[in-house]
C-alpha cells in the first residue's frame, strides 16, 4: 500500500481513472442497440412474489400485492457502471405513465439508498421503488446483473429479460407491457 504524499496522490489518481473508465464503459453500453437479450420464462406459481421489501421512503412492500395483476419489475442500480440503467430510466418513466393498468415496481440494488432516491427523483420515476440491499429479491428472480426486467402476467407466468448489449427500446418495452394485458391465446388444436 503506498504511503506518504506521493503514494496517496497515486491512489487518488488511480481511483479517479478507474471511475472514469467505468462511466465511459456505461456510456458506451447505453448507446448500443439492444440486439441481444437473454429471455427466460417464469413459471406461474407466484412463489417469487412471496417477499417483503422496503420502499425507498421506508414503507413496507408486500410482493404478494402483485399476485393476479399484470406487473413489471425493473431491477436496476444507480451505480456509475450501469449506464444502461440510466438510459432506460426515462423510457420506463414514459411507458409506466402511459400504462396505469400495469403495476410497475423498481427493485434497486448494489448501491446506497441516498443515491437510489436521487436517481428516482432525477428520472421522474413515479412508481414504487424498493431497495434490495441484501439482493434477496434479485436472487429470487435469478437476476444476474442490472438492468433486468420481470414481465408478469396476471396468471403468474412471464419472462425475465436481461438485455446484454444495451437498453431496451421504448417500442420493445411498450410491446411487452401491452402483451401483459392481452387476452390469452386460444389453445392450439
UniProtKB/TrEMBL annotation:
Q: Which residues form the signal peptide?
A: 1-37
Q: Where are the transmembrane segments?
A: none
Q: Which GO terms describe its molecular function?
A: catalytic activity
Where would I find the Thioredoxin domain in this sequence? Answer: 26-182
What InterPro entries has UniProt attached to this entry? Redoxin, Thioredoxin-like_sf, Thioredoxin_domain
Alphabetically ordered keywords of this record:
Signal
Q: Does the keyword Lipid biosynthesis apply?
A: no
Q: Which domain of life is it from?
A: Bacteria
Q: What is this protein called?
A: Thioredoxin domain-containing protein
Q: What is the lineage of its organism?
A: Bacteria, Bacillati, Actinomycetota, Actinomycetes, Mycobacteriales
Amino acid at each position: 500500500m503506498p504511503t506518504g504524499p506521493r503514494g496517496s496522490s497515486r491512489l487518488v489518481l488511480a481511483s479517479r481513472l478507474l471511475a472514469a473508465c467505468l462511466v465511459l464503459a456505461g456510456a458506451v453500453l447505453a448507446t448500443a442497440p439492444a440486439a441481444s437479450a437473454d429471455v427466460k420464462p417464469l413459471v406461474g406459481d407466484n412463489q417469487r412474489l412471496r417477499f417483503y421489501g422496503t420502499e425507498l421512503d421506508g414503507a413496507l412492500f408486500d410482493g404478494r400485492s402483485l399476485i393476479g395483476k399484470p406487473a413489471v419489475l425493473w431491477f436496476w442500480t444507480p451505480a456509475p457502471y450501469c449506464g444502461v440503467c440510466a438510459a432506460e430510466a426515462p423510457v420506463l418513466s414514459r411507458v409506466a405513465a402511459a400504462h396505469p393498468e400495469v403495476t410497475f415496481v423498481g427493485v434497486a440494488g448494489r448501491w446506497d439508498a441516498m443515491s437510489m432516491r436521487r436517481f428516482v427523483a432525477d428520472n421522474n420515476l413515479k412508481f414504487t421503488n424498493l431497495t434490495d440491499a441484501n439482493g434477496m429479491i434479485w436472487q429470487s428472480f435469478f437476476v444476474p446483473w442490472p438492468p433486468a426486467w420481470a414481465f408478469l402476467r396476471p396468471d403468474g407466468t412471464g419472462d425475465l429479460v436481461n438485455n446484454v448489449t444495451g437498453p431496451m427500446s421504448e417500442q420493445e418495452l411498450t410491446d411487452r407491457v401491452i402483451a401483459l394485458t392481452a387476452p390469452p391465446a386460444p389453445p392450439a388444436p
